[in-house]
Amino acid sequence: MSDDMPSARDLLSEISGHIEKHARPGMQTRINGLLLSKVTGSAGPDYSLTEPLLVVMTQGGKRLLLGDEVFEYRAGQILIVTASLPVTGQYLDTTRPSMGVGLVLRPAALAELALRAPALPRTTSAAPAMATGEADAELLDAVARLVRLLDRPADAPVLAPLYEQEILWRLLVGPHGATVRQIALADSHLTHLNRAISWMRDNYAEPMRIEGLAQMAGMSTSAFHRHFRSVTAMSPLQFQKQIRLQSARSLLVAESDDIAGVGHRVGYDSPSQFTREYRRLFGAPPSLDAARLRGLGAAPEPALLP
What we know:
Elements: H1 8-22, E1 34-39, E2 46-49, E3 53-59, E4 61-66, E5 69-74, E6 77-81, E7 86-91, E8 98-104, H2 107-116, E9 130-134, H3 137-148, H4 156-172, H5 177-184, H6 189-202, H7 210-217, H8 221-232, H9 236-254, H10 259-265, H11 271-282, H12 286-296
Organism: Mycolicibacterium confluentis
Keywords: DNA-binding, Transcription, Transcription regulation
Protein name: AraC family transcriptional regulator
């Protein structure tokens, strides 16, 4: 770190100040791919479908459950997500707002940089699609410069792509370079799996054929099962179930009291099975859970920052 670079603490404080000023519902900003999140007083779990994303937590912390795996990240740490994943989250400090910056990880933006990054040994299995770690001062400095552009909209079209490129480079040459690189490589296990994951996300109500998904990923069924679990920490069936139930919850809160009808729309032929699995995930049967959320005025829209 150069002598004139602000400390990590000062950079986190500065980024938090920009989040205070610019965070809006929905988390989108005028800079493409840059997201800001400020959450106050959220004590209960939230359920979201992530996308490939870098998250830098600047205040507070969060615990995520992905399948059987638990991930925690706090102020000064990062979360890297490399696939669309259904996760359960819980904020760790409800006494003050939790704040974070997100940057969408786009394969096209990573591809050219990945070719310039130092070579890494080839692996025989896909890396987990979620990782946490420390944010060093160089990465925080690049993130701070990107966020500053929200106050300088005339500079953003020219400088934002350059700062994004620097952030991605820091990731590629950092401790999680192998994880991030999988997004960019056309022949990586993750890229092949993401074809099947995308189909499952978009067609969650349809019957699932493992053989078809494996063929989509260019793998044998046994290899598909193995790599899918190593990436998502769950089986394909568990993955589909999570997406179905999260979608059902949104439908029930937003528009419908027809429990059986909603269950059928998301792929359940048995109303009793739908109610049983819904209660197991959300802690209450569909009607009571939806009524409670309506009373709170809290429609469970998928969060962009996990």
